[in-house]
Design brief:
Blueprint lengths: L17 H7 L24 E3 L14 H6 L11 E3 L6 E7 L8 E2 L10 E5 L3 E7 L2 E8 L9 E4 L9 E11 L4 E5 L2 E5 L4 E11 L5 E7 L4 E10 L3 E4 L2 E17 L12 E8 L7 E7 L6 E12 L6 E2 L5 E2 L13 E2 L4 E3 L5 E6 L10 E9 L2 E7 L2 E3 L12 E4 L6 E9 L4 E9 L2 E4 L62
Length: 504
């Protein structure tokens, strides 16, 4: 199985204000903290509230906009449903206080000023914002909210593109500066508010700037063809227990490059395959499989491609690009998925390799005459012949052999003939006989010789991604027509590679 993976380990320098550090620590990534205050109400008209959607705001990414949040049922202006983002464009979250002390010309209840007579706000109070994320943070402000023309305050998270992928929560605290505003009560000007006011919130998100990955193993030399995807990342994510954010989906497809030889194959076989498999439940193991039952495919060499992507019902909450977002394997939204193929075509053989009916001439052969040997081969690959342990060949490349094979009988001694097939999947099968001028018979104690050594193939990858790793597939299927068997192993080299992803 090919292992492809990358972990980016970056730690942001701390830019943090000590007086606010304790307040902004402790919330677990992905958790939802209860609001410290719900804002002004009939019972408490003086309470401080907050909104993430003030007039003039242009939150980034799209998942932080009011329409996107409302589309998933969030009608609260001081809360955010979890989103997925990659860091580009740089996340920017606007916010403003909701308070009787910041609305110019608004009424200020007397109880909010320690009296009974209502007033009118003439000067808005100042406020500051303290934020913390992934070890970094700071205080911005003070800001004022004097008129509709005032630009709303925002926290710009310029470090997000550089933090590792994972779950994060932006911690926020808004403070209204006491005595920084004023209200007219009759002919008097009263400083407001008379005491500090604070409110805390957190906004959670998933940072993900890499494409899905998986370790891939091909099972291409069995009665069925399968592709195993293991160790998949990322796991499916939920914005909340009832709201799936995205699933991880892989598109696996292949097309026949060429057949092994000109031998006829069964009718109604396909020369391509194309399947989507999806991991939707984070509680299930990170394993998916593409399976084609035999005899569905023509036997031969296939070019195989694999794409890793996401499936989401709410694309506005998944602000990612450089990655196709498949909607349950059908509709695509934007971006280009990683596409990798094997460095050489993948062999698909759904028949079991064997060499059968190895036989010599029906009558004795005089010394100096040629004897003809024949056999039947099932499976595809390279055939080698050995006489008394020495390789012989009857093909144009002077390396391989094929049936029929003519051998000259030069003496009265006993000799051995061994025919071996190294199939396209690396499996070795063989058969052997004794022969001489007297005739031939099966070699009941025949042990297949080891296959000829092969030079390793160059690993090719044109995607700019990490090179795939060649790994052996253990096989134990070795047969001969003789009564004795010997196990033989083979090697299949495949590839998998994935990763890289950005954000809209």
């Amino acid at each position: 199985m090919a292992r492809v993976g990358a972990v980016l380990l970056l730690l942001l320098g701390a830019v943090f204000v000590q007086t606010h550090a304790q307040l902004l620590q402790g919330a677990q990534p992905g958790a939802t903290i209860a609001p410290a205050a719900a804002g002004a109400s009939a019972a408490n008209p003086c309470a401080l509230g907050i909104t993430f959607f003030p007039p003039g705001a242009d939150n980034k990414p799209t998942g932080w906009t009011q329409p996107a949040q409302a589309n998933v049922g969030n009608t609260a202006s001081d809360q955010m449903v979890k989103t997925a983002l990659a860091g580009y464009p740089v996340p920017m979250l606007y916010m403003a206080p909701v308070s009787v002390f910041t609305q110019v010309n608004g009424a200020v209840p007397g109880q909010c000023m320690g009296g009974t007579v209502d007033g009118v706000l003439t000067k808005p109070a100042h406020f500051t914002i303290t934020w913390a994320l992934a070890g970094a943070g700071g205080v911005i402000g003070p800001f004022t909210k004097g008129s509709k023309q005032d630009p709303p305050a925002n926290v710009t998270l310029s470090a997000v593109p550089d933090i590792p992928d994972g779950d994060y929560c932006l911690q926020l605290k808004m403070d209204v500066v006491p005595g920084s505003g004023s209200a007219a009560v009759g002919t008097q000007m009263v400083p407001v508010p008379s005491a500090p006011q604070s409110i805390t919130r957190q906004v959670c998100f998933i940072k993900m700037a890499s494409r899905p990955t998986a370790n891939v193993t091909f099972h291409s030399c069995n009665t069925s063809f399968a592709v195993d995807l293991m160790g998949i990342t990322p796991k499916p994510m939920f914005a909340n227990p009832q709201l799936p954010l995205f699933s991880t989906v892989f598109h696996v497809w292949g097309k026949l490059n060429r057949t092994f030889d000109r031998s006829p194959q069964a009718d109604n076989l396909l020369d391509y395959f194309d399947q989507y498999v999806k991991w939707s439940d984070p509680a299930s193991p990170p394993f998916l499989q593409v399976l084609m039952e035999s005899p569905g495919l023509l036997n031969g060499y296939y070019n195989v491609w694999i794409e890793g992507s996401l499936s989401t019902t709410y694309p506005d909450l998944v602000s990612l690009f450089g990655l196709d977002q498949y909607d349950d394997g059908s509709a695509k939204y934007m971006g280009v998925s990683l596409r990798n193929s094997s460095n050489r075509p993948v062999p698909i053989q759904t028949v079991r390799s064997k060499i059968a009916d190895l036989a010599g001439p029906d009558i004795p052969v005089q010394m100096g005459q040629a004897a003809t040997f024949t056999w039947e081969t099932q499976g595809y690959g390279e055939q080698f012949c050995y006489v008394d342990g020495q390789k012989v060949a009857n093909t144009a490349d002077v390396v391989h052999c094929e049936s029929p094979l003519n051998l000259k009988v030069a003496d009265n001694a006993n000799h051995t003939l061994e025919v071996m097939l190294v199939d396209v999947c690396g499996e070795v099968v063989a058969n052997g006989i004794f022969f001489g001028s007297w005739g031939w018979r099966q070699n009941m104690k025949f042990v297949p010789p080891p296959p000829p050594p092969t030079a390793p193939d160059a690993i090719y990858n044109d995607s700019g991604m990490p090179l795939p790793v060649r790994t052996p597939m253990v096989r134990n299927r070795t047969t001969s027509a003789a009564a004795s068997n010997a196990a033989a192993g083979g090697v299949v080299a495949m590839l998998a590679g994935f990763l890289g992803m950005l954000l809209i």
